[in-house]
Amino acid sequence: AASVEVREEIDDLFTGASAYWLKESDLQLRFCTNETQATREKFVAKLRRLGFDISVSEVFPPAPAAIAVLKERGLRPHLLVHDGLLPEFDGVDKTNPNCVIVGDAAENFSYQNLNEAFRVLIGLEKPVLFSLGQGRYYKETDGLKLDVGVYMKALEYACDLKAEVIGKPSPTFFQSVLNDMGLQPHEVLMIGDDLLNDVGGAQHCGMKGVQVRTGKYRPIDERHPTVTADGTVDNLAQAVDMILSQRGH
Fold first, then answer.
1. What does the pLDDT look like over 111-154, one tens digit per residue?
2. 242 has which bridge partners?
3. Catalysed reaction(s) (predicted)?
4. What residues in the chain have per-residue pLDDT under 50?
5. 167: nearest Cα among 60, 23, 249, 88
6. Rounded to a whole number, what is the largest CA-CA distance in the chain?
7. How many helices (H) and strands (E) does the chain have?
8. Pick from 159, 172, 150: which is nearest to 120 by CA?
9. CA distances from 109 to 17, 102, 113, 168 (A)
10. What is the tens place of the pLDDT at every residue in 136-145?
11. Distance (Å, whole) CA 213 – CA 8
C-alpha cells in the first residue's frame, strides 16, 4: 500500500497520472495531508481538476480527526484557523470554549487573533491546545511560507503547555490511516516532500518513507542528522515506477 502527501500547491506534473497507475494496480492508496486551508471536499475537487481520480474517503486531513477528538472528550473549541476551513466546524459547539484549535491560518495569524487564542488558553484551569499538524514551513508558487508549527510553539511557550498534534507526524494520525486500509505498518510506504513530518513520522510508526525532490525538499535533507529516507526520488512518477518495478520481481 502507499500513502502520498499532498498539498494545495502541487508542482509535480506527473502526480495525477502517477496516482492513476497506483490505483490501477492492486495497491491501496490513501492521501495523507496536513492541508488546513480548505474543507476536505474543496481539496478533493481541486485534486480532481489536477487529474486525480480520488474520492473524499481516500483523503485524510487533520480537521475531521480533530472533530472526532472534540466529540469524544466533550470539548468546545476556540478556532484559530483559515476562513476556508471554518465550514468543517459548522456542527461543532463553540460556545464558552474550553480548548483552542490552531491550523494553518495564513493571514489570520495576526497579533490580535493570536492574543485572543492566548487569552482563552491562559484563562482555563486545564488549558488544552490542539495543533492541526506542526510543520515549520511549506512551499507555494510564490515561495516558502511559515506553517502552523511556528504559531503552535508561540502559544506553547506563552502558556507553558504542550500542544496535542493532530495530523502528521502524529502516530495516532498515521495509525488511523493504517486502520482504514486494514494493514500493518511494514506493509505500507509513505511518499512525501517533508523529511520530518512525512518520512520521519511514517518511519516512527514502522512504515517505510520515501522523499520526493519537489515541494519543500531541500538538498540538505539528504544529510539530515536524525532522519534518513528509505529512498529519495525526483518526483512521484519516479516513486511509482520504483514501487511497481519492485512488485514485478
1. 999 999 999 999 999 999 999 999 999 888 899 999 999 999 99
2. none
3. diphosphate + H2O = 2 phosphate + H(+)
4. 7-14, 249
5. 60
6. 60
7. 8, 12
8. 159
9. 36, 10, 6, 21
10. 998 888 999 9
11. 17
- Supply φ then ψ for residue 5, to 5 degrees: -85, 135
Question: What one-character DSSP code corresponds to residue 14?
Answer: T
DSSP state letters, 101-115: EE---GGG--HHHHH
Instruction: Say if residues 77 and 101 touch (Cβ distance below 8 Å).
Output: yes
pLDDT (tens digit, 9 = 90+) per residue, 174-194?
Answer: 999 999 999 999 999 999 999
Q: Which amino acid is at 69?
A: V
The grid cell for 145 is 511560507
* CA angle (68 as vertex; 65, 73 as ends), nearest 5: 130
Q: Taking a C-beta distance cutoff of 8 angstroms, is the pair 152, 134 a contact?
A: yes
- Check the CA dihedral 178-176-49-36 and report its sign: negative
Rounded-to-integer distance, Cα 11 and Cα 212, Å: 11
Share of the chain above pLDDT 90, in %: 76
Contact criterion met (CB below 8 Å) for 184 and 208: no
